[in-house]
Amino acid sequence: MESLNQRSACYGSEEFLDGRLHPPAQRDTQLCMRRYALLPFLLLAACDHISQRVWNCSNSPLRVVKVLSTGERINDVIPPRSYIASMEGGVQIVQLEAIVDGAPKSVWRQEQAVSANGFDANAVCGSREAGLIGQQF
User: Fold this and answer.
1) Which structural domain, as residue segments, surrounds residue 88?
2) Contact, 77 vs 66, CB < 8 A?
3) How many whole angstroms separate alpha carbon 131 and alpha carbon 95?
């Protein structure tokens, strides 16, 4: 277990168990740097694999019907080279349908999502100029 000295090392002055107060200049900066170096790994470990992004890789908007985990159906548009999302604690997108020849056709299902965390259409879609890519993170 960390001592009081270590727990307070990243926060201003330190108070030792004997009651002496030490100025911030004497704090353990190496310990602080180690803690901040772990932050990205903790953030990645916090991924729930329930949050989703569905990317439209085409250069034109795509009109879809979102079929949600509640059974609700909602019309939406995915902007070109962009995405729609649902986050943990919210309703999940189970399926996307597009109107093809006057009838709804499934164009994406939740099972097709890949584990990823891309934030840029070029990184996610690459050279693809059509189709949907679903991510879970």
Assistant:
1) 52-136
2) no
3) 14
Residue 41, pLDDT > 60, answer no
Distance CA 31, CA 11 (A): 11
Nearest to 49 by CA among 118, 108, 136: 136
Residue 126's region, left for phi above 0, alpha for psi from -120 to 50, else beta, is left
Q: How many domains does the chain contain in total?
A: 2
Q: Please give the Cα distance from 10 to 35 (Å, whole number).
A: 9
Q: What percent of the chain has pLDDT over 70?
A: 57
- Do 8 and 39 share a domain, yes or no? yes
Whether 27 and 82 map to the same domain: the answer is no
> Which two three-digit tokens encode residue 14?
């330190």
31 DSSP 8-state letter: H
Cα 101 from Cα 111, distance rounded (Å): 25
Same domain, 80 and 129: yes
